[in-house]
Amino acid sequence: MQEAIHYGKVELIPGIICDGYVLNDGTAVMSERGTADLLGMNQMALNRMKTTWPPKTLQPFIDQGLGMKTTLVKVVSQNSPYEGRKIVVYNTNFIEAIIRAYVMASAHSALQKNQLHIGKRCSILVCALTRTALEVSIKQAAGLSIDIQKTAQQHYQDAAKLLKDFGFSCSVNEDVAIKKDITKFLDVPESTLNSFLRKHQNEIQPIKLDYSTIRSMGYKAPRMNGYHLEDVGKIAVGMDTVIGIEWRKVLTKVFAGFGLHCNYPIGNYKADFFIEKLMLILECNGYDNHQYYDKKLEKQREQFIKQRYSMVRFHHKIQLETLFNGILQAKIGTVIKLYNIKDIYNNNTSNSLHDYL
Q1: Could you give all domains of the chain from N- to C-terminal order, each with its CATH number?
Q2: How many Å apart are CA 176 and CA 168, to the nearest integer?
Q3: In what order do the strands lie in the sheet with 269-275?
Q4: pLDDT for position 242
Q5: β partners of residue 262
Q6: pLDDT at 289 (0 to 100)
């Protein structure tokens, strides 16, 4: 068995940190989880590809003879958190091939709806890496030193401005979007977008729209914020756009006939999911798990909801069995939080969402 003797954190996309290794034969690889995070997909979905390889939508764009074999290596690098463990890795040849396949499939409109966000990310990533290679080559030839990862991150954000090529449109002029534009394009509830904006409030500054602009769009609200296209790019590349897409499909099937509503108004608030016959609210959160919400306002929200309903907050990568266990324990007047991130990422034996789609 090969050994992973060197370890490092790879951050090509701002905020997306992937585990990278160099094996004893000099091969550069990424862990399975790191590869999934880079592509913007669920780790279990990537793992499941081995049983259906090559995926039907990608088959025309995969190099002939390219296989997807599980490569198991032992981590001996002392600075890795997985030292002494055996992990699955993918080499750069395979990662490049799968990125290229998603880009080609996206260009030919061959991807399924739940794959579109991967195609978008891969397309932007290719642009960013190409520009990075050119810039680094030129500057190094001129005798200058350059931080490759920071350069790639910057180019990734710049490339995200190509959102319009993927069908994104702004409600204000050509370069200012409102929240509705963003949530529609990313297919996420507004609560998820608000959570992300709170987390990045120092990086993403809203534009206060004047009353005449708001009225020209057909809205009667006295106040409304807009977001510059460049900031929309930061949102698009920073937010895990798979949040809510797969869960919506699963919960629609599971709670058929129970009155499932998405993005449902409860008083002055909105719930990601509301199951009417169970008087149950489900909040699907991303990496921040609501930790950046105003704690006082969030407590008031929970107190209001607990008067008539039960609530379960869950991380979007949690296993389905864990969520159901939490739902079974939910009672009116209680809030259950399922945010054990360590267990979510380390437990790969349970069924993934894709088993239920």
Answers
A1: 3-159 (no CATH), 171-238 (no CATH), 245-356 (3.40.960)
A2: 11
A3: 260-266, 269-275, 280-285, 310-315, 335-338
A4: 40
A5: 273
A6: 43
Asked if residue 255 has pLDDT above 60, the reply is yes
More confident residue, 200 or 73: 73
The answer for residues whose C-beta is within 8 angstroms of residue 50's C-beta and 6 or more apart is 68, 69, 70
- Own/partner long-range contacts of 42-45 (Cβ < 8 Å, ≥24 apart): 42/242, 42/246, 42/317, 42/352, 42/353, 42/354, 43/317, 43/345, 43/348, 44/348, 44/352, 44/353, 44/354, 45/352, 45/354
**Planar angle of CA 302, 342, 260, nearest 5 degrees:** 40
Q: How far apart are CA 83 and CA 78, in angstroms?
A: 6
Closest by CA position to 250, among listed 351, 186, 318, 320: 320
Residues 275-285: pLDDT tens digits? 999 999 998 76
pLDDT tops 90 at residue 84 = yes
Q: How many helices (H) and strands (E) does the chain have?
A: 13, 13
Q: Are 43 and 319 in contact (CB under 8 A)?
A: no
In terms of Cα–Cα distance, which of 57, 70, 64, 67 is closest to 104? 57
CB 340 within 8 A of CB 35: no
Cα 25 from Cα 91, distance rounded (Å): 12
What residues contact 253, with CB distance under 8 A and at least 6 apart?
356
DSSP letter string over 275-303? EGGGTEEEEEE-TTTTTTS-HHHHHHHHH
Other Cβ atoms less than 10 A from the Cβ of 113: the count is 9
Q: What's the pTM value of the predicted model, to 2 decimals?
A: 0.53
Percentage of residues in the chain having pLDDT higher than 90: 28
Distance separating alpha carbons of residues 323 and 247, to the nearest angstrom? 11
Torsion (CA) 124, 128, 131, 136 in degrees, nearest 10? -170
Retrieve residue 68's tokens: 């997807």
Q: What is the DSSP string of 8-20?
A: EEEEEETTEEEEE
